[in-house]
Amino acid sequence: MDNSICQVYEDEIQSLEEEIKLLAEKYEDSQQESTFFSDEEILMSIKSFQREFRGGSKGHESLSDLKAQLESLETDLSFLMKFTGIQFTSHSKKTVEKTRNRTVRKHRLSGNCHSLSFQLEFQLLEMQNKESVSAVISDLSIIMESREDSDVSKFVSSTEEHGNLLTFFRSLSSYAEWYEHRRCTFLHFK
């Protein structure tokens, strides 16, 4: 009888170990897939759910705070999209290398700015010191719809060389707005 009980427990342990292994693989896969949340936002969500499962009313309060924060972020994002004309359609990031104080992630972004579509691919090197975090962009590649324009082509090449995303998005917003105005004007005269 003792052997059969031990066998049942061993079978249950093995089943649980397999389940843990599957969940760990699923977790690793989800870490490599597209993500739209920062590590801090994910940690806040995990803590919120932990409090909720413990059964305290604090979990519900923090959940409502998170919902309010999410609504505020969505409102801010909507405002920025209307203000700049830039709308991201997809984003993915993949961790290429991670050490204690250095992380390299590969990002892919695609979107539209007014009527122009664009795609970006770059690596982001994040180095953490005791007090600060610094980030450096490398291997920037930009694909734009209107590269036939030599000025845009020169600008894109210069941006890829210097890796300055802020300048790219500022200039893209302005250029795409006027590109749309020119396109509508020429359609009007046709």
UniProtKB/TrEMBL annotation:
InterPro entries membership: CENP-P
Zinc-finger as UniProt keyword: no
Keywords per UniProt: Coiled coil
GO biological process: CENP-A containing chromatin assembly
Coiled coil residues, start to end: 6-33
Superkingdom, natural source: Eukaryota
Pfam families found in the cross-reference section: CENP-P
GO CC aspect terms: chromosome, centromeric region; nucleus
Protein name: Centromere protein P
